[in-house]
Amino acid sequence: FFVTIYGAATNTSSNSSFRAIRIYKEFKMKKFSSLLVLMVTLVYGALAQADFKPYSQEVFKKAQMDGGTVVVDFHASWCPTCKKQEPLLNAIVNMPGYEKVVGLKADYDNEKDLKKSLGVTKQSTIVVFKGGKEVGRKTGVTSKDELKALIDMGL
N or C end of the chain, less CB within 10 A? Predict the structure, then answer.
């Protein structure tokens, strides 16, 4: 910017040099602007995704009272099956038509009362609710099609 103003003020025979510098700086600024737009888009897209949230009783009760589909994933950090399920479940709830599905990840090792109340005895158990009633349950499933079919029971 300064170079463009300085070149115009001095009006020397090297105006073409100043013009080249100005064009270069404008090009760099456009590249920076494009990169900034891309970064904002990526960050916003990541925030807009509806990945599974940590389980909380308040969110669980509210989602059930709203009558929507609630999916509870009994996940353990040490469980290899759970690690395979996680990206599949997140991909499903981010698909068109699944925007209203509430996905909750319950910590298998810490949510003892919830496990007892739902009769869950193994990690990697997925329980689907619709309108407060259980409509489906599977344990150890790592097929995206099977997981999708399970969640579809609540739609």
Answer: N
